[in-house]
Design a protein that fits this description.
Order of helices and strands: EEHEHEHEHE
Structural class: alpha/beta
Oligomer: single chain
Number of helices: 4
Largest sheet: 6 strands, mixed
Distance between the termini: 16 Å
CATH architecture: 2-Layer Sandwich
Number of strands: 6
Strand content: 15-25%
Radius of gyration: 14 Å
CATH superfamily: STAS domain
Length: 136
């Protein structure tokens, strides 16, 4: 199962729409980290609104992916954590370290733009031909 990764300016967007097997989660992690390096992305938004369950392995993969992205210079926001997922993560003693959290993708993009702007970079160049939506 390949999870789509879209590019919007210097931000990568990905929405996980189904529960992933451990193999799929690791493949997603690899694909995302490679795309960050390939596109020199400044930010990453991972939308998990559709996930009703996040087990300890998936939580670790998300944490590790966020840490890898930060090491490559990209800010990370996890969007759309469901209440039951949040409760489960807390009960498991898991925290999403290295990533900000947002209610939805719109808020996540605002957070990313603000964090990237404080670094002196510009994430979304709407007039630039290179800033169009596309799968990378």
């Amino acid at each position: 199962m390949k999870i789509p990764i879209l590019r919007l300016g210097r931000i990568l967007l990905s929405s996980i729409q189904i529960d992933l097997t451990d193999t799929d989660a690791l493949q997603f992690q690899n694909d995302l980290v490679c795309k960050i390096a390939e596109t020199e992305a400044l930010g990453v938004a991972i939308d998990i609104t559709s996930l009703d369950v996040v087990d300890s392995f998936m939580a670790r993969v998300i944490n590790d992916t966020a840490s890898m992205a930060r090491l490559l210079g990209a800010e990370v926001v996890i969007c759309g954590i469901q209440p039951y997922v949040a409760m489960t993560l807390v009960e498991m003693g898991r925290d999403l370290i290295g990533a900000d959290c947002a209610f939805n993708l719109d808020q996540g993009l605002k957070i990313l733009n603000a964090r990237i702007s404080t670094r002196g970079d510009t994430a979304l160049n709407w007039g630039d031909d290179d800033a169009t939506n596309r799968t990378v």
